[in-house]
Amino acid sequence: MTLSLPFLIALIGVALLFDFLNGLHDAANSIATVVSTRVLKPYQAVIWAAFFNFIAFTVFPQHIAQTIGTGIISANIVDAQVIFAALIGAIAWNVITWALGIPSSSTHALFGGLFGAGLAKAGFSGVVWSGVIKTVVAIVASPALGLVLALLLVLVVAWTSLKLTPMGVDKRFRKLQLISAALYSLGHGGSDAQKTMGIITVLLYSQGMLSGGFHVPLWVVLACQAAMALGTMSGGWRIVHTMGSKITRLTPAQGFCAETGGALTLFLAIFFGVPVSSTHTITGAIVGVGAARRLSAVRWNVASNIVIAWTVTLPAAALIGALTWWIASFF
C-alpha cells in the first residue's frame, strides 16, 4: 500500500515519539548511578547523558538498525499497519511501565510490538526466526554479561586502590564516573536510537523511497539521535529512584564499575548487531557490584520484580501490537 505523504510523515512522527519516550523511559539507565552517588546533580546528569546520546552516531555503525529493519520480520510484509501496530504496542507498554516506575525494556517492547504485528499479518512465515532467536538469547545474555564485567571491574578497582584511603578512592572515582557515565550514555544512544532508525528505514523501504537497497539515510540518523537526546533531557525520575537506590546503594567506585560494565556490554552488542536492552544491561551490572560487596546488599525482592517485568514485556507488547494491527486492518 502506497501512503500519502502526510500519512507517511505522521507515521514517522509516531516512530520519533517512541524514540523520545525511549530516551525519557531509559534516561534513568544512563544517569541513575551518577545521580545516586551525587557526582552530578540531576539536571547536570541529563544534559551530560543527552549530549553523548546524540553524538553516538559518529562512533557506531548502524548494525542494529539493519537487524530491526530486516531481521525480526520479513521486510516484504512491512506496511503502514504493521509499523503503526508495532509502535503502538511499544509505546503503550512503555507508558504503562513508566507510570508504575518499572524499568522495563524499550528494546523488547519494540521487538514485541513488531513481532506481534508481523505475526498477526503473515503468521509464522513472516517471522525471521534467526533474528528472533538472537534477540531472545540476548535477553538473558546481556544482563549476565553486564553482571560479570561489573564484578571483574570491582576486583580490578579493589586491587588498584589498595594503597589509597577511602577518601582517596572516593575522590578518584568521582572524576572517573564522569567518563563511565559518558561511555554508558554513548552506548545507550548508539544502541537504542538505532531501533527507531530501523523502523523508519524499513517503512521508507516498503514505500520504494530508498535507492540502492536497504540503508539508513543520514536525516533518519540525525532525527532519531535528536529525539532520543531530547527524551533523555526530559528525564525519567520515577525510574531513577529504582535503579539508583532501591536495588543497592552505590559508591562512586561501584557506580564506575556498573556503568563501565554496562557500556562494554552495549558496545559489543552494537558491534555484532544484537538489539539488547540497555535496561537489562545496567540492571545486571548494578546487581553485580552490589553482590560483590555481599549478597545481602542487593534488594533481591526489587530485582526479582524487575525480572518479572522483563519477562512480561515481550508478550504484553506483542499482544498489544497484534490487537492494534487487527483493528487497523479494518481501515
From TrEMBL:
Nucleus keyword on record: no
Annotated compartments: Membrane
Membrane topology according to the record: Multi-pass membrane protein
Entry annotated with the keyword Transmembrane helix: yes
Superkingdom to which the source organism belongs: Bacteria
Pfam families in the cross-refs: PHO4
Coiled-coil portions: none
TM annotation in the entry: 46-65, 77-96, 108-129, 136-159, 218-240, 261-287, 307-328
Keywords, sorted A to Z: Membrane, Transmembrane, Transmembrane helix, Transport
PANTHER family with a match to the protein in the record: PHOSPHATE TRANSPORTER
Protein's name according to its UniProt entry: Inorganic phosphate transporter
